[in-house]
Amino acid sequence: MQTKDYLLKIIDDKQNVRVWLAHTSHLVEEAHRRHATSATASAALGRVLTAAVMMGSDLKGEQDLLSLRINGNGPAGTIIATADGHGNVKGFISEPQADLPSRYPGKLAVGELVGKEGFLEVIKDLGLKQPFVGKVPLVSGEIAEDLAQYLLLSEQIPALVSLGVLVGTDLHILAAGGLIVQALPGADDEILTVLENNILSLNHISELINTHETLEEIVPSIMQGVAYTIIGEQKLAFRCQCNRERLGIILAGLEEEELREAIEKNENIEAVCNFCQEVYSFSPQEIQVIQSKKP
Ligand SMILES: [Zn+2]
Protein backbone atom coordinates (compact mmCIF):
# COMPACT_ATOMS: atom_id res chain seq x y z
CA MET A 1 0.00 0.00 0.00
CA GLN A 2 1.25 3.48 -0.83
CA THR A 3 1.79 5.57 2.27
CA LYS A 4 -0.20 8.70 1.40
CA ASP A 5 -3.29 9.75 -0.54
CA TYR A 6 -2.53 12.27 -3.25
CA LEU A 7 -3.40 13.51 -6.70
CA LEU A 8 -1.00 14.05 -9.58
CA LYS A 9 -1.86 16.51 -12.35
CA ILE A 10 -0.25 15.81 -15.71
CA ILE A 11 -0.48 17.68 -19.04
CA ASP A 12 0.96 16.53 -22.34
CA ASP A 13 3.51 18.89 -23.82
CA LYS A 14 1.27 19.83 -26.76
CA GLN A 15 -1.60 20.62 -24.37
CA ASN A 16 -4.11 18.22 -25.85
CA VAL A 17 -5.06 16.44 -22.67
CA ARG A 18 -4.90 16.71 -18.92
CA VAL A 19 -4.57 13.60 -16.83
CA TRP A 20 -5.54 13.50 -13.16
CA LEU A 21 -4.30 10.41 -11.30
CA ALA A 22 -5.29 9.86 -7.67
CA HIS A 23 -4.44 7.49 -4.87
CA THR A 24 -7.28 7.40 -2.31
CA SER A 25 -6.85 4.11 -0.37
CA HIS A 26 -6.57 5.79 3.03
CA LEU A 27 -9.51 8.13 2.67
CA VAL A 28 -11.72 5.30 1.41
CA GLU A 29 -10.59 3.17 4.37
CA GLU A 30 -11.50 6.08 6.67
CA ALA A 31 -14.96 6.25 5.07
CA HIS A 32 -15.36 2.47 5.47
CA ARG A 33 -14.35 2.70 9.14
CA ARG A 34 -16.67 5.62 9.90
CA HIS A 35 -19.72 4.25 8.06
CA ALA A 36 -19.13 0.51 8.64
CA THR A 37 -19.76 -0.17 4.96
CA SER A 38 -20.15 -3.60 3.37
CA ALA A 39 -17.62 -4.58 0.69
CA THR A 40 -19.76 -3.41 -2.22
CA ALA A 41 -20.91 -0.26 -0.39
CA SER A 42 -17.24 0.59 0.31
CA ALA A 43 -16.50 0.28 -3.38
CA ALA A 44 -19.50 2.40 -4.40
CA LEU A 45 -18.87 5.13 -1.80
CA GLY A 46 -15.12 4.97 -2.44
CA ARG A 47 -15.56 5.54 -6.16
CA VAL A 48 -17.83 8.53 -5.54
CA LEU A 49 -15.42 10.02 -2.95
CA THR A 50 -12.51 9.56 -5.35
CA ALA A 51 -14.41 11.20 -8.23
CA ALA A 52 -15.51 14.12 -6.05
CA VAL A 53 -12.08 14.87 -4.63
CA MET A 54 -10.53 14.72 -8.13
CA MET A 55 -13.13 17.09 -9.58
CA GLY A 56 -12.94 19.30 -6.50
CA SER A 57 -9.26 19.94 -7.20
CA ASP A 58 -10.39 22.28 -10.02
CA LEU A 59 -12.22 24.60 -7.60
CA LYS A 60 -10.62 28.03 -7.43
CA GLY A 61 -12.25 29.79 -4.47
CA GLU A 62 -11.16 29.25 -0.87
CA GLN A 63 -14.72 28.31 0.20
CA ASP A 64 -15.90 26.59 -3.01
CA LEU A 65 -17.43 23.14 -2.69
CA LEU A 66 -18.28 20.42 -5.21
CA SER A 67 -20.74 17.64 -4.44
CA LEU A 68 -21.66 14.50 -6.34
CA ARG A 69 -25.07 13.04 -5.63
CA ILE A 70 -26.05 9.67 -7.07
CA ASN A 71 -29.27 7.74 -6.69
CA GLY A 72 -29.96 4.90 -9.10
CA ASN A 73 -32.88 3.39 -7.20
CA GLY A 74 -30.75 0.43 -6.14
CA PRO A 75 -30.19 -1.05 -2.65
CA ALA A 76 -27.41 1.52 -1.97
CA GLY A 77 -29.91 4.38 -1.75
CA THR A 78 -28.31 7.79 -2.18
CA ILE A 79 -24.57 8.39 -2.23
CA ILE A 80 -23.26 11.89 -1.62
CA ALA A 81 -19.68 13.14 -1.55
CA THR A 82 -18.57 16.73 -1.02
CA ALA A 83 -15.06 17.99 -1.75
CA ASP A 84 -13.30 21.33 -1.42
CA GLY A 85 -10.44 22.67 -3.50
CA HIS A 86 -7.85 21.69 -0.92
CA GLY A 87 -8.07 17.91 -1.30
CA ASN A 88 -10.58 17.32 1.50
CA VAL A 89 -13.60 15.11 0.92
CA LYS A 90 -16.42 13.71 3.02
CA GLY A 91 -19.36 11.53 2.08
CA PHE A 92 -21.94 8.93 2.94
CA ILE A 93 -24.08 6.18 1.49
CA SER A 94 -27.62 5.97 2.85
CA GLU A 95 -27.56 2.15 3.10
CA PRO A 96 -24.00 1.33 4.22
CA GLN A 97 -24.84 -2.30 5.10
CA ALA A 98 -26.44 -3.09 1.75
CA ASP A 99 -24.46 -5.66 -0.20
CA LEU A 100 -24.88 -7.97 -3.19
CA PRO A 101 -22.94 -11.07 -4.19
CA SER A 102 -20.45 -10.38 -6.98
CA ARG A 103 -21.19 -12.13 -10.25
CA TYR A 104 -17.64 -12.14 -11.51
CA PRO A 105 -14.61 -13.08 -9.41
CA GLY A 106 -12.76 -9.97 -8.24
CA LYS A 107 -15.48 -7.58 -9.36
CA LEU A 108 -17.91 -6.17 -6.83
CA ALA A 109 -21.49 -5.57 -8.00
CA VAL A 110 -21.34 -1.77 -7.66
CA GLY A 111 -23.59 -1.09 -10.67
CA GLU A 112 -26.31 -3.33 -9.28
CA LEU A 113 -25.99 -1.94 -5.76
CA VAL A 114 -26.30 1.65 -7.03
CA GLY A 115 -28.84 0.88 -9.75
CA LYS A 116 -29.22 2.85 -12.95
CA GLU A 117 -32.77 4.15 -12.72
CA GLY A 118 -31.79 7.62 -11.66
CA PHE A 119 -29.39 10.49 -11.96
CA LEU A 120 -25.91 11.73 -11.25
CA GLU A 121 -25.95 15.32 -10.07
CA VAL A 122 -22.94 17.58 -9.77
CA ILE A 123 -23.50 20.55 -7.47
CA LYS A 124 -20.91 23.33 -7.47
CA ASP A 125 -21.23 25.86 -4.68
CA LEU A 126 -19.04 28.73 -5.83
CA GLY A 127 -20.30 31.27 -3.30
CA LEU A 128 -22.85 32.70 -5.74
CA LYS A 129 -26.54 33.14 -4.94
CA GLN A 130 -27.44 29.82 -6.54
CA PRO A 131 -25.22 26.75 -6.75
CA PHE A 132 -24.55 25.36 -10.23
CA VAL A 133 -26.34 22.02 -10.68
CA GLY A 134 -25.67 19.66 -13.59
CA LYS A 135 -27.70 16.48 -13.89
CA VAL A 136 -27.47 13.48 -16.22
CA PRO A 137 -29.27 10.13 -16.28
CA LEU A 138 -27.12 7.25 -15.03
CA VAL A 139 -25.58 4.96 -17.66
CA SER A 140 -24.67 1.96 -15.52
CA GLY A 141 -24.40 2.97 -11.85
CA GLU A 142 -20.73 1.96 -12.00
CA ILE A 143 -19.87 5.65 -11.35
CA ALA A 144 -16.92 6.04 -13.76
CA GLU A 145 -19.07 5.68 -16.90
CA ASP A 146 -21.68 7.92 -15.34
CA LEU A 147 -19.13 10.61 -14.63
CA ALA A 148 -17.74 10.42 -18.18
CA GLN A 149 -21.30 10.86 -19.45
CA TYR A 150 -21.77 13.89 -17.21
CA LEU A 151 -18.52 15.51 -18.41
CA LEU A 152 -19.51 14.95 -22.04
CA LEU A 153 -23.16 16.00 -21.88
CA SER A 154 -23.05 18.69 -19.23
CA GLU A 155 -19.58 20.21 -19.67
CA GLN A 156 -18.88 19.16 -23.30
CA ILE A 157 -15.59 17.55 -22.27
CA PRO A 158 -14.72 14.19 -23.85
CA ALA A 159 -13.13 12.18 -21.03
CA LEU A 160 -11.93 8.76 -20.01
CA VAL A 161 -12.74 7.99 -16.40
CA SER A 162 -11.57 5.03 -14.37
CA LEU A 163 -12.35 4.62 -10.67
CA GLY A 164 -11.55 1.61 -8.55
CA VAL A 165 -11.65 0.26 -5.01
CA LEU A 166 -10.09 -3.07 -4.07
CA VAL A 167 -11.62 -4.53 -0.89
CA GLY A 168 -9.91 -7.28 1.12
CA THR A 169 -11.68 -10.34 2.51
CA ASP A 170 -11.55 -8.69 5.97
CA LEU A 171 -13.40 -5.68 4.42
CA HIS A 172 -10.40 -3.36 4.74
CA ILE A 173 -9.49 -1.32 1.69
CA LEU A 174 -6.46 -2.74 -0.13
CA ALA A 175 -6.27 0.00 -2.74
CA ALA A 176 -8.35 2.79 -4.22
CA GLY A 177 -7.80 5.42 -6.83
CA GLY A 178 -8.93 7.15 -9.96
CA LEU A 179 -7.82 8.28 -13.38
CA ILE A 180 -9.50 11.04 -15.37
CA VAL A 181 -8.23 11.94 -18.83
CA GLN A 182 -9.86 15.06 -20.25
CA ALA A 183 -9.47 16.39 -23.76
CA LEU A 184 -8.55 20.07 -23.78
CA PRO A 185 -10.24 22.35 -26.33
CA GLY A 186 -9.00 21.59 -29.87
CA ALA A 187 -7.34 18.35 -28.75
CA ASP A 188 -5.72 16.15 -31.38
CA ASP A 189 -7.84 12.97 -31.63
CA GLU A 190 -4.72 10.92 -32.22
CA ILE A 191 -3.28 11.58 -28.76
CA LEU A 192 -6.60 10.62 -27.19
CA THR A 193 -6.51 7.34 -29.08
CA VAL A 194 -2.94 6.67 -27.98
CA LEU A 195 -3.87 7.28 -24.34
CA GLU A 196 -7.03 5.24 -24.62
CA ASN A 197 -5.06 2.29 -25.99
CA ASN A 198 -2.42 2.68 -23.29
CA ILE A 199 -5.08 2.60 -20.60
CA LEU A 200 -6.91 -0.36 -22.15
CA SER A 201 -3.67 -2.36 -22.18
CA LEU A 202 -3.09 -1.73 -18.47
CA ASN A 203 -4.57 -3.41 -15.42
CA HIS A 204 -7.57 -1.83 -13.74
CA ILE A 205 -6.73 1.33 -11.78
CA SER A 206 -7.20 -0.33 -8.36
CA GLU A 207 -4.74 -3.11 -9.37
CA LEU A 208 -2.23 -0.52 -10.60
CA ILE A 209 -2.47 1.33 -7.29
CA ASN A 210 -2.15 -1.93 -5.38
CA THR A 211 0.97 -3.07 -7.17
CA HIS A 212 2.96 0.19 -7.31
CA GLU A 213 4.71 2.12 -4.56
CA THR A 214 3.90 5.55 -5.99
CA LEU A 215 1.69 7.16 -8.63
CA GLU A 216 4.82 8.42 -10.36
CA GLU A 217 5.66 4.79 -11.22
CA ILE A 218 2.30 4.39 -12.99
CA VAL A 219 2.41 7.58 -15.06
CA PRO A 220 4.93 6.44 -17.73
CA SER A 221 2.76 3.49 -18.78
CA ILE A 222 -0.35 5.69 -19.04
CA MET A 223 1.53 8.36 -21.03
CA GLN A 224 3.60 5.98 -23.20
CA GLY A 225 4.35 7.60 -26.58
CA VAL A 226 3.30 11.07 -25.40
CA ALA A 227 5.64 13.75 -24.04
CA TYR A 228 4.28 15.12 -20.77
CA THR A 229 4.93 17.14 -17.63
CA ILE A 230 3.69 16.59 -14.10
CA ILE A 231 2.31 20.05 -13.29
CA GLY A 232 1.00 19.58 -9.78
CA GLU A 233 0.46 17.43 -6.75
CA GLN A 234 -2.17 17.70 -4.06
CA LYS A 235 -2.61 15.85 -0.77
CA LEU A 236 -6.00 14.18 -0.32
CA ALA A 237 -7.87 13.30 2.87
CA PHE A 238 -11.25 12.36 4.31
CA ARG A 239 -12.16 15.41 6.36
CA CYS A 240 -15.48 16.69 7.66
CA GLN A 241 -15.93 20.27 8.86
CA CYS A 242 -18.74 19.50 11.28
CA ASN A 243 -18.63 20.81 14.85
CA ARG A 244 -20.86 21.14 17.93
CA GLU A 245 -22.24 24.48 16.80
CA ARG A 246 -23.42 23.17 13.42
CA LEU A 247 -24.94 20.03 14.93
CA GLY A 248 -26.63 22.22 17.55
CA ILE A 249 -28.38 24.06 14.72
CA ILE A 250 -29.61 20.74 13.31
CA LEU A 251 -30.77 19.76 16.79
CA ALA A 252 -32.75 22.99 17.03
CA GLY A 253 -34.68 21.78 13.99
CA LEU A 254 -36.09 18.83 15.96
CA GLU A 255 -39.68 18.77 17.17
CA GLU A 256 -40.36 21.01 20.14
CA GLU A 257 -41.82 18.01 21.97
CA GLU A 258 -38.74 15.89 21.53
CA LEU A 259 -36.54 18.60 23.01
CA ARG A 260 -38.94 19.23 25.92
CA GLU A 261 -39.08 15.51 26.67
CA ALA A 262 -35.29 15.26 26.89
CA ILE A 263 -35.20 18.21 29.28
CA GLU A 264 -37.97 16.76 31.46
CA LYS A 265 -36.34 13.35 31.62
CA ASN A 266 -32.95 14.99 32.20
CA GLU A 267 -31.53 13.05 29.23
CA ASN A 268 -28.81 13.91 26.79
CA ILE A 269 -29.70 14.13 23.11
CA GLU A 270 -27.22 12.79 20.63
CA ALA A 271 -26.82 14.28 17.19
CA VAL A 272 -24.86 12.35 14.58
CA CYS A 273 -23.16 13.95 11.57
CA ASN A 274 -24.37 12.21 8.40
CA PHE A 275 -21.10 12.74 6.61
CA CYS A 276 -18.65 11.38 9.17
CA GLN A 277 -20.76 9.67 11.86
CA GLU A 278 -19.20 11.80 14.60
CA VAL A 279 -21.56 11.81 17.61
CA TYR A 280 -22.24 15.05 19.50
CA SER A 281 -23.97 14.71 22.84
CA PHE A 282 -25.97 17.64 24.22
CA SER A 283 -26.89 17.88 27.91
CA PRO A 284 -30.40 18.98 29.01
CA GLN A 285 -28.89 22.37 29.97
CA GLU A 286 -27.42 22.77 26.48
CA ILE A 287 -30.72 21.68 24.91
CA GLN A 288 -32.46 24.37 26.93
CA VAL A 289 -30.10 27.00 25.54
CA ILE A 290 -30.63 25.70 21.99
CA GLN A 291 -34.38 25.71 22.50
CA SER A 292 -34.37 29.26 23.84
CA LYS A 293 -32.59 30.42 20.70
CA LYS A 294 -35.24 28.91 18.45
CA PRO A 295 -37.08 31.53 16.43
ZN1 LIG B 1 -19.05 15.40 10.21
Helix/strand/pairing category: alpha+beta
Largest sheet: 6 strands, mixed
Helix-residue proportion: 25-40%
Shape summary:
elongated
Lateral strand order in the biggest sheet: 7-6-3-4-5-11
Number of strands: 13
Radius of gyration: 21 Å
In short, what is this structure?
With 295 residues, the chain is α+β, with helices and mostly antiparallel strands.
Give structural attributes.
295 residues, alpha+beta, 5-stranded antiparallel sheet, binds zinc ion
What's the structural blueprint in terms of helices and strands?
Blueprint: E1 6-12, E2 17-23, H1 25-35, H2 39-56, E3 65-71, E4 78-84, E5 88-93, H3 110-114, E6 119-125, E7 132-137, H4 144-155, E8 159-167, E9 173-183, H5 189-201, H6 205-211, H7 219-222, E10 228-235, E11 237-238, H8 244-252, H9 256-264, E12 269-272, E13 279-282, H10 284-292
Parallel strand pairs: 5-11
Antiparallel strand pairs: 1-2, 1-10, 2-9, 3-4, 3-6, 4-5, 6-7, 8-9, 12-13
Helix pairs in contact: 1-2, 9-10
This protein binds zinc ion.
